Amino acid sequence: DDVRGWNFCNNSNDPKDEDGHGTHCAGIIAAVGNNGKGVTGVCWKAKIMPLKIQDKNGFSASNAVSAILYANANGADVINNSWGGGSFSQTLKDAIDASSAVVVCAAGNGDDDKIGDDNDLIPSYPSSYESANIISVAATDHHDSLRPSSNYGAVSVDIAAPGENIYSTVPAGYFTMSGTSMAAPYISGTAAILKAYKPSLTNLGIKAAIEKGVDTNPSLFGKVATGGRLNAHAALKNISSDEPAEINSPTPGSSLTSATVTFTWTDVGADNYRLEIGNSTGTGDFYSADQGRKTSATVNSLPSDGRKLYVRLKSDFGGLWQQKDHTYTAYISSDRGGQKAVMISPEPGSALTSTSVTFTWSSGGAERFWIYIGTSKAGSTDVFSKDQGKNTSVAVSALPDNGAKFYVRLWSLTDGYWQYKDCTYKACSRTAGVKAAEMLTPLPGSTLTATSVTFTLTKSGVDRCWLYIGTSAAGAGDIYAKEQSTNASATVSGLPNSGVKVYVRLWSFVSGKWVYNDYTYTAFKSSDSKVPAEILTPVPGTVLTSASVTFTWSDTGAAKYWLCVGISGVGASDVYRADQGIKTAVTVSNLPRNKALYVRLRSVVDGKWLYKDYTYTTAP
Fold first, then answer.
1. CB 619: neighbour CB atoms within 10 A?
2. 489, 456 in Cβ contact below 8 A?
3. N or C: which end of the chain has fewer CB within 10 A?
4. Rounded CA gap, 306 and 334, in Å?
């Protein structure tokens, strides 16, 4: 697993924290304990994989998608998202849905008025995605009540956790911060503890254990779905106290004596039991059914060829599933009469010409058929697996189209005995000779003539394309990142007007894999290019004599401004940070005394964040 992490803002392996926010969250989750230093994280030995999606140039939704996919690919068990903003993104939701991790999301902290919003009415993404593996987290104060600035939602926010004056790590040492960004890491740390205690737990099992273990609080009723605040100890008890049922007959590991078997198991008081029997662990090829609270089930027509059978018995404790796996040797029939069915067409071993094929076979006197189709080995089912009853043909679509060999297994049931015939085929090669899409206009390497440009491309035979446009490095998508599934052109607005280099990456899905071509352009340069705003008062570099200071700045026509004030380093926001909209002044109170003060004023210029940094000294 890669725990070094990645910086998706500049495409490097240096995810350095610029403002202390990420370091603060990481400390809440996993700061080392029992060492006489600073603070202790919820899960001391958790490994942190830092993934940077925002820097001085702002936030990119494509960076967030890339980070989630990166975490999925590199084995993350918990993904903490102490960030929010932007509109609904199907691509981001798809990435979250595909994750096997628990995805913990801060519910948000209201708007400029610092009063929490109802996420049921005004969604806050990513916490408001209706994804089963998301835990959306509100923040509580020192009185165990909902923090005034915390977002909430009786349906869309799951749970609350401490989020006021949380003392944790920052690059320069330790500092206190507040908000749902601080509450979410408490959930993430607890999820890490549960996964460490019981590695077999799924993301949904971890979520169920945490939500089942809350301390309910009337002040949270109607504010979060569980009506409660995190109790890590109770969550741990939820996974350690309930033991799943075990099969006691037939004896696990034994050989079955019939194709009809009655399985019985211990009653552990579960809400529901589920029995699954298959060719491999966790599958239900031969049987899969809920049993309610019954403690036995009779299963017919099991294989009678001596193969190994895998039996999983699952127990449901209030939505938290536990399981026990067992194996048996199938019954071997002394009378295996009948002939195996034989594939007639397409002719076994032949090369197919389409991804949609009708397979037909002789009956051989069998009473039932089942067909497996897969790409990894004989008997695999990653393409198709279906009981055919008494049918002797089936139309199968979406077969491979990569020209490779694939496998077909035809099962026949005769007198309760399953037997099979294997054959192979060569898939059609629909993409033979297809090249990756290429850029036609503007001419690669040329200088753009406007901030809105139509890019046209050639994509003959290519099913899917993605267009990435950015300014930080080849492959960046900080300006534009969108699939071009049926389009041969894309008009992109908001391109820079400052003459900088623009990077364009054109992705193509060819022969089952993604490939790309890179291009560069020189941005259009306007004679009246905008610049970031500058602070007018107080004069930069001066000593501030009051604990309350009004900062004013020039109005450059930017789309919005953001002010960050901190003491831990350049760009820090551990004293103040807020979106100013189009205002050109704000009063910041409670400034610390006798400190070096760092101020960053950010401006959205032509869709891109720019900034200016200043320093002051506060009087004793």
1. 12
2. yes
3. C
4. 11
Domains in the chain (CATH in brackets) are: 6-240 (3.40.50.200), 247-329 (2.60.40.10), 343-426 (2.60.40.10), 438-522 (2.60.40), 535-618 (2.60.40.10)
* CA-to-CA separations, 2 to 46, 50, 70, 98, 167, in angstroms, rounded: 13, 10, 9, 19, 28
The residue among 560, 545, 495 whose CA lies nearest residue 523 is 495
Element (H, E) at 212: helix 203-212
DSSP 575: S
Q: How far apart are CA 284 and CA 310, in angstroms?
A: 9
Locate all alpha helices (DSSP H) within 449-513, ordered by sequence.
none
Instruction: In whole angstroms, give the CA distance from residue 407 to residue 422.
Output: 7
pLDDT tens-digit profile of 546-593?
A: 999 999 988 877 889 999 999 988 888 889 999 899 999 999 999 999
Could you give the CA distance from residue 9 to residue 471 in angstroms, rounded to a whole number? 10
Phi-psi region of 557 (alpha: psi -120 to 50; beta: other; left: phi over 0): left
Give the residue from 356, 358, 363, 354 showing the smallest Cα distance to 346: 358
Global pTM reads: 0.47
Give 341's strand partners: none
For 129-190, give the DSSP string.
S--TTEEEEEEE-TTSSB-TT--B-TTT--EEEE-SSEEEEETTEEEEE-SHHHHHHHHHHH
- Residue located via tokens 């690059």: 171
Query: For strand 51-52 and strand 6-7, is the pairing parallel, antiparallel, or unpaired?
Result: parallel
- Reading across the β-sheet that carries 405-414, which strands appear in turn? 384-389, 368-374, 405-414, 417-426
As a whole number of angstroms, the distance between CA 485 and CA 279 comes to 38
Q: Which residue has the tokens 């939500």?
A: 211
Q: Quote the longest CA-to-CA distance of the chain.
A: 99
In the predicted structure, residue 431 carries a pLDDT above the cut 60? no
